[in-house]
Amino acid sequence: MSNLNSARWEQVQSVFHTVAEALVGEREAVLRGLCAGDEALAAQVCALLEEDWRGESMLDQGLGPLALTIVTDEFEARLGQQIGPYRILQMLGEGGMGVVYLAERTDIGGLVAIKLLRDAWLSPARRRRFASEQKTLAQLNHPGIARLYDADTLADGTPWFVMEYVDGLPLIAFWQAQSGTVEECLRLFRRICEAVLYAHGHAIIHRDLKPSNVLVTAAGAVKLLDFGIAKDLLETEDAGDVTVTGLRAMTPAYAAPEQQDGSAVGVFTDVYALGILLYELLTGKLPHDRAAVGTRWDLEAARPSSLAKADRFTAAVTSTEWADLNVLCLTAMRQEVVRRYQSVEALIRDVDAFLAGRPLEARVDSRLYRVGKFGRRHRAGLTYATVTVLLIAAIIGFFTLRLERARKAALEQAARTQRIQQFTANLFQGGDVSAGPTEDLKVTTLLHRGLEEVNGLNADPAMQADMRETVGNIYRKLGDPKQADVRLTAALEQRQGFAQKDAQEQRKLVDATISLGLVKMEEAKLDEAERLVQQGLQMCRALPASDAATRPSTATAMVALGSVLEAKGDYAGAIKVLEEALKMQPAGTSAEMAANLRGLANVQFYSAHFAEAEALEKRTLAMHKSLRGEHHPDVAEDLNTLGAIQHELGNLHEAEIYYRSALAITEGWYGPGHPNTAQDLTSLGRTLVNEKKYGDAKQVLERALAIQESTHGHNHPAVASALNELGNLAAQENDYVAAGARYAETLQIWRAVYGDHHQFIGVGLSNMGSVYMGQKDYVRAEMMYRKAVQAFTETVQEQHLNTGIAHIKLGRALLRQKRYADAEPETLRGYETLVKMVAPGNAFLVAARKDLEAIYTGLNRTADAVKYRSYDLQKL
Amino acid sequence: MKTVTGEGIIFADEATESEAGRRSLDEVFSLAYEELRRLASSVRRSDPHASLTPTTIVNEAWIKLAKTPSVAATSPLHFKRIAACAMRQVLVDAARRRLALSRGGGLVHVTFNEALGAGAKVSTGREVLALDAAIDALGKLQPRQAALVEARFFGGLDTSEVAELLGVSDATALRDWRAAKSWLALEVRRSLA
């Protein structure tokens, strides 16, 4: 259409539209009339009309056919080609970024998957993203994630990398072909979660979890694929990248709302996708019908139970189980991030809870959420009491669920739910909401109300037992083991009295027995504690072996037993049971695993195997941090143990840092008057004494002592610990009368709690000896030290740090009596024990060297004397 | 006991605005490319339910990019126009590359006729380039119409969106489209003949 200008084009169009809109029979006449002899115009309009009538223009076809242009044939052409040592066999699939082929290694054989970036020329963003996927895979080494083998670039600049080839089916297809029980389904799902959790542990978020990226082999092994849009949390990115990188995948059905609206993504983004996968596994359907919903993501999905067909699983799923599956699934895929499982670990915990028939934590969370919202709205009024209220809310929520699960008859359940709701509602009633929690919400008030409720439940003993346990556990968390003991004992007696015990009730009985055992341990009633925990463990072992839930709870019971044995000073027995339990724990990060490792760390610590203790405790700490975040009491407890290790090694500065970090968390969490806070204060005080910061030490230790005495009364190890450190402080300040009194008190408590056969008795005797040393009563000192050495050799054996220290102390008592020949073997033995396990600057080690020099001088063995002195000089 | 302190992950935003803007644009092109791949594979599968208009990219890209500083100041419509422009550009780049590759003779040419549904047409790189040139020519005659074609055909905007974008009535937008469509078809046919 040459010779066209804008004015002419307007004219052509005007005629075109008039003719096109005219009646069919009149068009020619209209055209002739408008063109008025302008044949060129008529021809131009005719040609346009012809195209219009044909209606087959490129533009009518839509963009689809043109889009084929972008599909060059180069990838088909690669079949049979050689790339490095790999020969391409067939195409496996295409993603937004690249093409994946099946290839074989021509040199050493074997099948691999090779991925090439398609159209690398297009944009730097694509090349960057491809490189980032490669880097991500290189970091991940997990059986559930396809491994990276090799990578390079073709001559034309196309980057490629080689991965493990997975011969499997996409998740949903696999499950549809396979089918099975709901438990098998959940176990399969758990394996996916584990792989995702592993990636999260490496700060990598997958962001594109969907069935086609989760292959399952015939053997049921899960492999995650396609980290093409995975995000490395440790890498800073610019805003554009953050918001956009996830876009292309956008398999919208699996993309979390925050991913869809460009908000910050996190581990919770994968949690969402996992939730959708579970939903699809359970129901065979996707939760949100995209066609119907359009671009709205704010709709909550229908409960899985309402969609799944009855024959979905090979064994029937009870309505109670469905209720849990609904919660599990819908919590994972909550639209608001804050209401979702905050980590895959939390999701796994609830999967495990489901598999074990335990109540789900998600139920607790939804309560926490509601209370948390209250907290956020009224931040100004938040006090320690509020934190406690949250804590109680969590516990009550947890036990509320326990109650729910136990019920079979719908009617009973309805009645009970109502009562429990009343109970919790009553707890939180009172107080002006806008002003935040008031006096009415003080812990004691709450508990008092709870107790009234319990007493009002006489009609239903099962529920009363549950509620007593609830209240008992609240007391335990509040650091009041005595009150906890009363409630838990009552609950346990009630449970033992039930005539009929189904599997649920059996498990509750086991839990109740072990809980009470642990409270007894906190109360320092160690024999009762051991008896109860042993009893719980036996009951646990007697549960039917077919019950899948038995195994983990047996391990948990064994860990409880391990901690009781450790408290009793039976380190060999504790290690045995804890290591046995460890073998039963499923691999990977879990609260149970962390508790198990912590138990072992404690035993190793008391056995003075500090390197082992430190390694175990650091693993525990890492687990707790990933499970609980940075500021959880569990983390604080780990920091405390690490501090204790550093203290024993003589690294006082490091110890103080650990202790102060622990204290900050514990105090922030439990408040200033809680026994756990006091425990950290005692630890810190101990280090401060050794650092000769006597003023600070005194303040800290006296505060600790006051808290512990008001919590536990006098005869309790926690009180003894504080007293012992106050004794150390007095001894350091040369106040031997005060020190002697403190040490004597300490020793008396330890004897009352542990009897005579415990290493702490050795510690007490040894400290008493030191008081006599200070008073220059070397004969009495020698006597005490000899008793101490004996106590240690009987309990923790010869190679223990404390035994070594006792030898050194005994050596000094003998040296002061100028009994060089008697002193020499004692000091030498102690020195040789310590030199293997503590830092060179350790005060006892330095003292031992000094003493050895004096002893050898006294024995006229000058060469040996010089050896210790010169060693000393070298080191200094 | 569950922790009561929730944690979230906060990303550091260290990029300058212009860098972010450049990256955003880069991303728009990547997205355009991926949308074209999606359309192409729908055509190859002859998926009867697949939408062959590129609305997905435009809508979703807007939702995602709207929060980036460089795009925040842009109106949704203007953004859609940018996305449409990117679609056209990527398609043209791909077509040029395809032609260059086939001239190089290194590749076996495969057509997708067999895979296509009845009535669907296969385009070649030459058609894309012809259309691109024709739209440019149309832009010289009536810039508004070229913009309309780009927004509607490449960006998937509907009539009322296009009308709003160009500041004309719906009726005018429809008439402009009808005339432009025929004119472009004619131009492409001539240039390929």
Account of the protein in words:
- The complex is a heterodimer of chains A (876) and B (193).
- Chain A has 40 helices and eleven strands.
- Chain A has 876 residues and is mostly helical.
- Residues 236-249, 290-298, 367-391, 397-445 and 870-876 of chain A have low confidence and may be disordered.
- Chain B is mainly α and 193 residues long.
- Helix content of chain B is 69%, strand content 0%.
- The longest helix of chain B has 29 residues, at 17-45.
- The model of chain B is unreliable at 1-20 and 105-122 (pLDDT under 50).
- Chains A and B meet through helix 1, helix 3, helix 4, helix 5 and helix 6 of A and helix 1, helix 2, helix 4, helix 5 and helix 6 of B.
Number of strands of chain B: 0
Structural class of chain A: mainly alpha
Summarize the largest interface: chains and residue counts: A-B, 91 and 96 residues
- The residue fraction in helices of chain B comes out at 55-70%
Strand count, sense and barrel status of the largest sheet of chain A are:
6 strands, antiparallel
Count of discrete alpha- or pi-helical segments spanning 4 or more residues of chain A:
40
Beta-strand content estimate of chain B: under 5%
- End-to-end separation of chain B in angstroms reads 77 Å
Average pLDDT of chain B: 69
SSE blueprint and pairings:
The complex is a heterodimer of chains A (876) and B (193).
Chain A: H1 6-21, H2 27-35, H3 39-54, H4 58-61, H5 63-67, H6 74-77, E1 82-83, E2 86-94, E3 98-105, E4 111-117, H7 124-139, E5 148-153, E6 159-164, E7 168-170, H8 171-178, H9 182-201, E8 204-205, E9 214-217, E10 222-224, E11 231-232, H10 239-244, H11 257-260, H12 267-283, H13 290-293, H14 304-307, H15 319-332, H16 344-356, H17 361-377, H18 384-406, H19 410-428, H20 443-455, H21 461-477, H22 481-497, H23 503-522, H24 526-542, H25 550-568, H26 571-584, H27 591-606, H28 610-628, H29 633-649, H30 652-670, H31 675-690, H32 694-712, H33 717-732, H34 736-754, H35 759-774, H36 778-795, H37 801-816, H38 820-837, H39 843-858, H40 862-875
Chain B: H1 17-45, H2 55-65, H3 69-72, H4 76-104, H5 125-141, H6 143-154, H7 159-166, H8 170-192
Helix pairs in contact in B: 1-2, 1-4, 2-4, 4-5, 4-6, 5-6, 5-8, 6-7, 6-8, 7-8
